[in-house]
Amino acid sequence: MSTLPIRLFGDPVLNQVTKEITDINGRVAALADMMIETMYEAPGSGLAANQVGVQRRMFVYDKGDGPVVVVNPEIRESEGEWVFEEGCLSVPGLSWDIVRPNRIHLVGLDLDGNEISIETDEYEGRIFQHEMDHLNGILLVERLDEDQKKSAKKLLRKRAMSVPSDDPDGLSSLFGR
């Protein structure tokens, strides 16, 4: 198994809304395995498909109980408020206090196509919300207040790297045409 390069701030793939997965097949399972390995190597506690250049609605995470894959996730309910220092593998070395709902209800599918329904709060809920933001084309810096956002973007622009434009959804470079 191999790891995948994590796309960084400035990469346009991170600002695009991902597309649903219509067929959970061996390619999706192989991608999930590579994403899990990449997440652990980074190290991180979650990784969305578009963070490795694949424009599909899937993320992997591990809150400490082993890796989990969620395909076509959707947050159905959220409530409360919780402030927590949050970082991002696509914005390495930086973190900020981010306000998010404390409790959420997430639904999606596993790699066998079975429905997943998880009601959770605090850390696990934050992972889900962070990864859902990625799948919706929203980076962590968009959650900052205007002054923080301005200084963060200025710093991050200096770090931005170029992105290949010949593989917009990322699938061809992983699995061939």
Q: Could you explain the architecture of this structure?
A:
Strand 4 (82-88) and strand 5 form a beta hairpin. This protein is α+β, with helices and mostly antiparallel strands and 177 residues long. The chain has one domain (12-159): Peptide deformylase (Peptide Deformylase), CATH 3.90.45. It is globular, with a radius of gyration of 16 Å. The two termini are 20 Å apart. The protein has helices at residues 26-41, 122-135, 146-159, 171-175; strands spanning 46-48, 58-61, 68-79, 82-88, 91-100, 103-109, 115-121. The strands form two sheets. The chain has a five-stranded antiparallel sheet. A two-stranded antiparallel sheet has the order 4-5.
Write the layout of secondary structure elements.
Layout: H1 26-41, E1 46-48, E2 58-61, E3 68-79, E4 82-88, E5 91-100, E6 103-109, E7 115-121, H2 122-135, H3 146-159, H4 171-175
Antiparallel strand pairs: 1-2, 2-3, 3-6, 4-5, 6-7
Question: In brief, what are we looking at here?
Answer:
This protein is of the alpha+beta class and 177 residues long. The chain has helices spanning 26-41, 122-135, 146-159, 171-175, and strands at residues 46-48, 58-61, 68-79, 82-88, 91-100, 103-109, 115-121. It has one domain (12-159): Peptide deformylase (Peptide Deformylase).
Output the keywords:
177 residues; alpha+beta; Peptide Deformylase; five-stranded antiparallel sheet; two-stranded antiparallel ribbon; 7 strands; 28% strand; globular; disordered C terminus
